[in-house]
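Dear support,

I submitted the protein below through the web form. The confirmation email said the job was done, but the results page showed an empty box. After a refresh the structure appeared. I'm attaching both so you can tell me whether what I see now is the final result or a partial one.
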Amino acid sequence: MYNYIGKALFFFIIISLVLSTTALVVSRRSLSGSVWLAGFFANVLDFFYLPIRQLFLKFSDTRILDKWMSSLKNEAHESAFAKTRRRIILAPHCMRALDCPAYSTQTGIQCKSCGKCVFTQIKKDAEKYGYKVFILTGSSYVKRILQMEKADGVLLIACDYEINKVMRALKGKKVVTYGVPMERDGCFGTEVDYQSVLNVFETFKN
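What the results page shows now:
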């Protein structure tokens, strides 16, 4: 009996290594073009995320892993996101101006459209394309906002780590996620390529 268990465990390890390695290769290729079975391989990476992340933490950079996974999930979610009708944008407060006059509430920062940062333009264009903007001071706001807003599509503007984290947290929920990674991350003064945001607006306009 132990012999069969040992063989089964051996084959499981081999299959896991093959699947996870293939999924990593596919996710990297998704950065430059379309890939097959994006949803399947995204699920593989989600399943093996913690051990793979430990390997990247030791031998590489975990930001690379999150970048690949976010790109792969965008590929997997593209068709479903295009069918959504009630969309919101979740973006981090670190893109605000340092002297931002806005105040915080239970749904995040309430932008005053003062013109000091990119949120003024994001808010203006988002409304034109049918999105409602929420500026968050932490990922803990996500669940609360989705309880208040009956959205079926969530556009995430954040660093790759946060995009991947929220995508994983909302997996299996009744929303479809899509991400626009920031050009520069950090705790403040972060930036997003605004043309990338506009491209997403245009790609998925209803």
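Response: this is the final, complete result; the empty box was a page-load delay. The two ends are 59 Å apart (CA to CA).
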